[in-house]
UniProtKB/TrEMBL annotation:
<keyword id="KW-0812">Transmembrane</keyword>
<feature type="transmembrane region" description="Helical">
    <location>
        <begin position="314"/>
        <end position="335"/>
    </location>
</feature>
<feature type="region of interest" description="Disordered">
    <location>
        <begin position="1"/>
        <end position="22"/>
    </location>
</feature>
<feature type="region of interest" description="Disordered">
    <location>
        <begin position="262"/>
        <end position="286"/>
    </location>
</feature>
<protein>
    <submittedName>
        <fullName>Uncharacterized protein</fullName>
    </submittedName>
</protein>
<feature type="transmembrane region" description="Helical">
    <location>
        <begin position="120"/>
        <end position="146"/>
    </location>
</feature>
<feature type="transmembrane region" description="Helical">
    <location>
        <begin position="341"/>
        <end position="359"/>
    </location>
</feature>
<keyword id="KW-0472">Membrane</keyword>
<feature type="compositionally biased region" description="Basic and acidic residues">
    <location>
        <begin position="277"/>
        <end position="286"/>
    </location>
</feature>
<keyword id="KW-1133">Transmembrane helix</keyword>
<feature type="compositionally biased region" description="Polar residues">
    <location>
        <begin position="267"/>
        <end position="276"/>
    </location>
</feature>
<feature type="transmembrane region" description="Helical">
    <location>
        <begin position="456"/>
        <end position="478"/>
    </location>
</feature>
<feature type="transmembrane region" description="Helical">
    <location>
        <begin position="187"/>
        <end position="207"/>
    </location>
</feature>
<feature type="transmembrane region" description="Helical">
    <location>
        <begin position="65"/>
        <end position="85"/>
    </location>
</feature>
<feature type="transmembrane region" description="Helical">
    <location>
        <begin position="158"/>
        <end position="181"/>
    </location>
</feature>
<feature type="transmembrane region" description="Helical">
    <location>
        <begin position="485"/>
        <end position="505"/>
    </location>
</feature>
<feature type="transmembrane region" description="Helical">
    <location>
        <begin position="366"/>
        <end position="389"/>
    </location>
</feature>
Amino acid sequence: MGCCHTNRGKEALPPISFDSQGSVDSLRKQVWREPDKPPGEAYLSVYCPSQDNMSRTKLGAGSPLMEAAVGFALGAVGGCILGATEDPVDKTLLLMTAAGPLKPVVDEVRTVGALGLGTLIGATALTTAMTSVVAGVILAAAVASAHVSTSHTDSVRFWALAGLAGAFGITLSGATLGVSIEWIVKNYGMLGLLLALSMFTVLKLPLHFAFKLLWKQGEACCTLGSKDWDSERKHTEVTELQHRQRKALQMEQRILTLEKGGGASGMESTTTWATEQRQREEIESRKMQNEEAEMAQRTMQDWINTVVVKYVDFLTFSGIPMTVVAIVTSGFGVFGYGGHQAVLVVLLILVAVIAYWLLQSSDFKFWMLIGCMGMLTTFVIAMLTLHAGQVVVTTGMKMHAAGKKQSREDISARMYHQSSLEALKATFFAAKLCELGLGAAVGGPLVRRAAGEVKVIVGAALVAGGLLAGVEFLAPVLGGGGEAGALLGVVGAAGVSVGAAAAMAGRWSSWPGTLGTVAGLVIGALVMGKWHIVNIGLQVPVAYVFAMTNSF
């Protein structure tokens, strides 16, 4: 999305000289040497910078050593907030996998089967993560749209309000969805969760159109309340016209004076010319400022609208592939084929067909990419869930061969428990990666659009830290599901900071800046994350890949 605005350049001309020897004709030639332009205005040029060129500008902090130091410091900020989320997330997972909270899930394995359980929980958790991120983005966009109509788009207040709104939206929606899912599972089991997921997927389509209609109406209200650029432009044009008329009248009076044989003082003419030139420059400066402010406002509003449209489409359509897979596998599980080999083949074919159909689209969009990734993730979770139960069966057979007999009921109970445990662990980790990646997909493009590396990295880290403290304080009120959803929202807010740091690493003008940023990001995450090398080693590359994705 490019922008185009008028840039007026001025070439200073010498003052018009008046002396008793000058003729009226020569004076007229000096005054009207440019019939359509007043003296002092040399040319009119149009400058249209493209957004791609803006995104390719390199950062520079002086010497390579200084770039490395600044990059390390900012990268460490993003890494530290990522590492700070590790311990609270792990504690929440331990609470969720305790005997009490895990019992409703274990009881439902018999209903939908291991494959159905894996795909259903995986699709639900990923849908929750995607919904919470989109809710945060939309709330931030709404605040930004309302703010951009009344003030400057590059102010600290603008970015602070938008960031706070986005972080609050993602955390609140995550907590709400977490509490809702926990209540549905406890009261209606996995079939109730499947019904809720299916209904939510179907209802998103009409809500998609309703939201776009409401957004257009809200945008129209913001436009009505914005600065009246037409009135400002007309006022400037009237001022400029009055200035030209006044100058033309002065010239005619001087011409009449010369025709009558009078003269004009050289000092007076120089002073008059300087005054006229200063007034012209003030008018041109005010006109340029108004044009640039109007163009900046319209460009920002167009960009906000583009972001909202893409993320609403993403929310509406990205969960469909996962939901289809969950419905199919859960349906087989209900009829007693949840762990049959034939169901595994059907599931594999279904995933391959949907992925091929989406990837072959001539108009490939962001939601298609995330939809494929989410569907493949649910397939992997289902495989891990099935494998965990099969490991228990294999172990029981080995113990039976060794003379340690176990009852079929005992083996089945252990198999269901292990399958449920693996499903929750894999799902929670996948949802955390999803939140982190989608958060990075917001932070990365913001930095590439020159929103300000320090503002995005440090601001998002501070907001995520505050939300993390707030979630831990409200943990008794939120409950297990609410705390889990809220913490995933915090991870998404931290992902904005991590994604911004990852995007900044590629914008330095020298390698030391890039390496320093990466080193700060990794070391900060490891130190604050209590050296969880495997987890951090998986999360940082995911954040980098999503940060480099042009989701906007």
